[in-house]
Amino acid sequence: MKKTISSISIIIPVYNEEGNLSLLYESLVSTFATMDYNYEMIFVDDGSNDTSFSLLEQLAQQNTNVKVIRFTRNYGQTAALAAGIDHAQGDAVVFMDADLQNDPTDIPMMLAKLNEGYDVVSGWRKDRQDTWLTRILPSKIANWVISKVTKVHLHDYGCTLKVYRRQVLNGYHLYGEMHRFLPAFAAQVGAKIVEVPVKHHPRRYGQSKYGLGRTGKVILDLFTVKFLNHYAQHPIYLFGSVGIVLVLLSFLLLSYLLVGKFFYGLSMIRSPLLLMSSMFVILGVQSIFLGLISELLVRTYHESQDKPTYHVSQILNINTIK
């Protein structure tokens, strides 16, 4: 029997959201007033250059349940969520955006699902209020690809609004765009996952920080997730399999050239296109493998030295740093 949730940590990355913070805070307070949970709101100021931090300071002075972590510069959403996890005290951890597009009133329903025995409750923006061509269409394609590669089928990997049992998040060192793949990592250790439709609102203030430019990063991180989930323990299975395929391909090409030489009198050395295509294949495979090896080196660097992927300049209402 899994432990019933009694305390909640809400982690909210903030980057230039001065127009939304007060409204978000009021909505969260109203939502938790209807529930019998101990809670903390952990706002992570990811290098904002507007008045966001000043507003967060005021909220922290008004309410000791408001915790604030300020970065020295902008490190990105994954680093902000990682900092929140490092300082969270609750039995359950809630991720949500600060732009008011996620709705705090969905949190009680998601916590109820967690208390039913699930380990991860993932939000699904079924009626998403974003631009179709630049946001919704790329998201649909990405979700389909991620689901196929990871074998964890979710409609909306990109929805920040997710709820996790605290123990599910232990042991992960997040970097890059890895936060969106946490359900896939959790599934690898047997976590029970459910996806639920959640409300989604149009952005009212400020500008979106997301765009098509992140697509390439997500795709590259997906290679890493696939590698870490399936081949990290036995990389020879991947490298060896590809090596065998390349050797067989080389043998077939050599056989083709020998047949051409001995039966048709063709020259083996006058085939530049074949040579170029072979070189391109080899160089491409080497590039991907070098990227994967680099990812392992970065992972080892952070984990072996216990160095975070962010630097904090100031904290409010947090007694100690883990």
Overall form = elongated
Q: Helical element count?
A: 9
Level of helix content?
Answer: 40-55%
Write the H/E string, N to C: EHEHEHEHEHEHEHHHE
- Write out the CATH superfamily name of the largest domain: Spore Coat Polysaccharide Biosynthesis Protein SpsA, Chain A
Please describe what this structure looks like.
It is a single chain. The chain folds into two domains: 213 residues, Alpha-Beta Complex (Spore Coat Polysaccharide Biosynthesis Protein SpsA, Chain A), CATH 3.90.550.10; 71 residues. Strands 7-5-6-4-1-2-3-8 form an eight-stranded mixed beta sheet, with helices on both faces. 47% of the residues lie in helices and 14% in strands. The protein is α/β, with parallel strands linked by helices and 322 residues long. Strand 2, helix 2 and strand 3 form a beta-alpha-beta unit.
Jot down its keywords.
2 domains, Spore Coat Polysaccharide Biosynthesis Protein SpsA, Chain A, 8-stranded mixed sheet, 47% helix, 8 strands, elongated, alpha/beta, 322 residues, 9 helices
Task: Summarize the SSE layout with pairings.
Elements: E1 7-14, H1 21-33, E2 38-45, H2 52-62, E3 66-71, H3 77-87, E4 92-95, H4 107-115, E5 120-124, H5 132-150, E6 162-165, H6 182-188, E7 193-197, H7 214-230, H8 235-264, H9 272-305, E8 312-316
Parallel strand pairs: 1-2, 1-4, 2-3, 5-7
Antiparallel strand pairs: 3-8, 4-6, 5-6
Helix pairs in contact: 5-7
What's the gist of this structure?
The protein has 322 residues and is an alpha/beta fold. The protein has helices at 21-33, 52-62, 77-87, 107-115, 132-150, 182-188, 214-230, 235-264, 272-305, and strands spanning 7-14, 38-45, 66-71, 92-95, 120-124, 162-165, 193-197, 312-316. Strand 1, helix 1 (21-33) and strand 2 (38-45) form a beta-alpha-beta unit.
